[in-house]
Specification:
Organism: Tanacetum coccineum
Bound molecules: 2-acetamido-2-deoxy-beta-D-glucopyranose
Subcellular location: Membrane
InterPro entries: Kinase-like_dom_sf (IPR011009), Leu-rich_rpt (IPR001611), LRR_dom_sf (IPR032675), LRR_N_plant-typ (IPR013210), PRK1-6/SRF4-like (IPR046959), Prot_kinase_dom (IPR000719), Ser-Thr/Tyr_kinase_cat_dom (IPR001245)
Number of domains: 3
Structural class: alpha/beta
CATH topology of the largest domain: Leucine-rich repeat, LRR (right-handed beta-alpha superhelix)
Radius of gyration: 29 Å
Protein name: Probable leucine-rich repeat receptor-like protein kinase
CATH architecture of the largest domain: Alpha-Beta Horseshoe
Shape: globular
Keywords: Leucine-rich repeat, Membrane, Repeat, Signal, Transmembrane, Transmembrane helix
Number of helices: 19
CATH superfamily of the largest domain: Ribonuclease Inhibitor
Number of strands: 23
């Protein structure tokens, strides 16, 4: 008996030794780095037999076992595959985990598709992707590479504009022989390079090229919907479409100087006129109308500054257009400009804005200020950088899309529920506190991997009572039947949103009626195939997804009284969501 235990002990010690030893062996390279390159190896063709060569560990301390790779301290630090007829499109995000990469070169190959994303590659110094068939825009994340010294992208089919590179380290730069367009950004760094770095592009302009940029920057084909526009151009467009935006404010605060107003009208059709007008506003001491701020202690800007800001269209909705305004001070705000609210009295508007502008909660967007004139109503709120839930769910499909995982989606919906509970409590006397809940009105901020959702565009129902069909609640069964909205109408919208988040289908896409869409979704027999493939691919959480679907169906019940309250919904969400997973992620 004793002997048996002894043998057993020896065995344990032996296996421990083997275990420790193999652990040391695997420490010679980093699995995340190797795993990242496997999809690349298996999806690309080339003149080398990568499939045969890239096996086993890629690194042994400073030695590399894989062709085209260099290692330092067991990390992959260089990836150099030049002139080997490398063919195919790069797998999305495949370099994300090769954290210590300092040189990347695929020059003179046959690569097509988008340029690789280089997010997180903080040690990357040299990027040589010239002489391929890359198309699409230069990814914006390239301007965030802190150590980038050389970027060669010449001889491709790259489109879009040149991002504003301004890392001082950058000393070699070539984007010639592409199809880039728009102005060359006038950053100190980009000014360093000569014509040879930029020429042979279809639509580039500005220094050092000998081509002057037109006064209005040409539209950026890489970003649909988000055209960068100077306020002056916004004004021009508005004049052209006979809706008068910021220019009206200009006229307003010039109202004491009638002759200037006349002049302004005369010059409205020429671009210089508008720029001059914007200039006056700074000189005009007789201005009486200004923005109303909620935090009267510290107004961060005045109307002049706002008018001189450069504006970019963030989105056009049924209520109006939202702009991103970047002021000379660098401050950024979002400005919503209402359309067709001219019958609204100042008292009504101001009362409602003061009510909702004083609400503060982590899950609702903070209103900074608002502006009322007879023809112009603006709401200015904090700018949320990562866009809307709609964009995250439905835009940038295909290669390059970063999937929204299940955990993130549930966390966002919990944020939405918290924001709604707050609104339902703070505006409990209003018929429907939010009234316009939909994925375009949920704005997302990422801090690291964690997404925070904030609600926007709420509290407009009292201002729009006659046009309520423009709001998201306009699609609720009770509103369609001509009944009054209630807090439960928001709950219906929340249910639709839940369905959208788990299926990644656009509600009412293909001009379908939303309630038909909901009924269609409801009537399928809830097998797993209703869910978005992106979250289904995850191994965990299928049970929770089904529970979430059930909750969504309760929220979209045709009878408002049968829908749960927002407070109950949050409790259900917290029960459904297994906190074990969140610990794993965090
Ligand atoms: C990067 O590594 C992490 C952690 O191992 C993994 O979850 C993730 O899927 C990897 N990403 C890519 C693009 O390979
Ligand atoms: C690449 O392809 C061309 C044309 O097919 C061929 O001449 C050349 O030898 C190839 N190069 C390599 C490194 O395989
Ligand atoms: C891969 O190729 C390189 C260079 O040809 C060679 O030194 C290395 O041993 C090969 N590695 C494997 C795992 O076959
Ligand atoms: C690997 O190279 C780095 C940098 O050149 C050096 O600091 C390190 O000592 C080397 N490691 C080994 C095991 O040779
Ligand atoms: C940029 O690349 C083009 C095409 O390969 C080349 O002719 C030109 O000399 C390069 N310019 C600079 C400044 O390196």
């Amino acid at each position: 008996m004793r002997r048996v235990t002894k043998v057993y002990h020896v065995l344990v010690v032996l296996t421990m030794f083997v275990f420790v030893k193999s652990d040391v062996l695997t420490r010679e390279f980093y699995e995340d780095e190797r795993d990242a390159l496997i999809p690349f190896r298996d999806s690309m063709k080339s003149g080398l037999n990568l499939h045969g060569n890239w096996t086993g560990p890629p690194c042994r301390n400073n030695l590399s076992r894989w062709v085209g790779i260099a290692c330092t301290n067991s990390h992959i630090t260089r990836l150099t595959l030049e002139s080997i007829n490398l063919t195919g499109t790069l797998p999305a995000g495949f370099l994300q985990n090769v954290t210590f990469l300092s040189k990347l070169s695929f020059q003179n190959n046959l690569l097509t598709g988008n340029l690789p994303s280089l997010t997180n590659l903080m040690y990357l110094e040299s990027v040589f992707l010239s002489g391929n068939g890359f198309s699409g825009p230069i990814p914006l994340d390239y301007i965030n590479l802190p150590k980038l010294t050389a970027l060669e992208l010449q001889d491709n089919e790259i489109t879009g504009t040149i991002p504003s590179f301004d890392q001082n380290s950058l000393t070699t730069f070539n984007v010639s022989y592409n199809q880039l367009s728009g102005p060359i950004p006038d950053t100190k760094v980009l000014e360093r390079f000569s014509v040879g770095s930029y020429d042979h592009n279809s639509g580039l302009c500005g220094r050092p090229l000998d081509i002057q940029c037109p006064v209005s920057p040409p539209p950026d084909p890489s970003k649909h919907k988000k055209k960068a526009l100077k306020v002056g151009i916004v004004v021009l467009i508005a004049v052209a479409t006979a809706i008068i935006p910021f220019s009206v404010i200009l006229l307003l605060f010039c109202c004491h100087k009638k002759n200037q107003v006349k002049e302004a009208k005369k010059e409205e059709h020429s671009n210089e006129g508008i720029e001059k007008k914007a200039g006056w506003s700074t000189e005009d001491p007789g201005r009486t109308v200004d923005l109303e701020f909620f935090d009267k202690q510290k107004p961060v800007f005045d109307l002049d500054e706002l008018l001189r800001a450069s504006a970019e269209v963030l989105g056009k909705g049924s209520l109006g257009t939202t702009y991103k305004a970047t002021m000379e001070s660098g401050a950024i705000v979002a400005v919503k400009r209402f359309k067709e609210m001219n019958s609204l009295s100042k008292k009504e508007f101001v009362q409602q804005m003061q009510l909702i502008g004083n609400l503060k909660h982590p899950n609702i967007v903070e209103m900074t200020s608002f502006y009322y004139s007879k023809d112009e109503k603006l709401v200015i709120h904090e700018f949320i950088q990562d866009g809307s839930l709609f964009e995250l769910l439905h835009e940038s499909r295909g290669i390059g899309r970063i999937p929204l995982n299940w955990t993130t989606r549930v966390e966002m919906m919990k944020d939405v529920a918290k924001g709604l509970i707050f609104l339902h409590e703070s505006l409990s006397s209003q018929k429907v506190p939010h009234g316009n809940l939909k994925s375009t009105n949920i704005l997302i901020n990422f801090s690291g991997e964690t997404a925070h959702a904030k609600l926007t565009d709420f509290g407009y129902f009292p201002l729009l009572a006659s046009q309520k069909s423009k709001l998201a609640i306009g699609k609720c069964p009770e509103i369609m039947d001509g009944k009054k909205p209630t807090h439960k109408s928001d709950v219906y919208c929340f249910g639709v949103l839940l369905l959208e988040v788990i299926t990644r289908k656009v509600p009412g896409d293909n001009h379908e009626d939303l309630s038909d869409w909901v009924r269609g979704v409801v009537n399928t027999d809830w097998s797993m195939d209703i869910f978005d493939l992106e979250i289904l691919a995850e191994k965990e959480g299928h049970e929770e997804m089904l529970k979430m679907a059930k909750l969504a169906l309760e929220c979209t019940d045709i009878v408002p009284e049968r829908r749960p309250k927002m407070t109950q919904i949050l409790i259900r969400l917290e029960e459904i969501y297994d906190p074990k997973i969140s610990i794993e992620v965090g």
